Amino acid sequence: MADKEKAKAKVEQTKGKVKEATGRAAGNESLTAKGRAEQAKGDARQAKEKVKDTFKH
Question: Which of 4, 15, 27, 51 has its CA at 20 to 30 Å from residue 44's CA atom?
């Protein structure tokens, strides 16, 4: 289960980076902001999983 959540976090981070880069290249601030938000969501999910791992061992 944890591996699945970690994979989701990586996917969110990657999608966010792509959106941010695309928005920046196109001069679209809205898309850039959405990309940053998606990255933050992935970062939060990853941090949550790291905490779980810390207490699991």
Answer: 27
Q: What is the pLDDT of residue 3?
A: 87
Tell me which residue has tokens 């999910």. Answer: 45
CA distance 23 to 44: 22
CA-derived radius of gyration, the chain: 13
pTM: 0.84
- Sequence-distant contacts of 10-15: CB under 8 A, at least 24 apart: 10/42, 10/46, 11/42, 12/38, 12/39, 12/41, 12/42, 12/45, 13/38, 13/39, 13/42, 13/43, 13/46, 14/42, 15/42
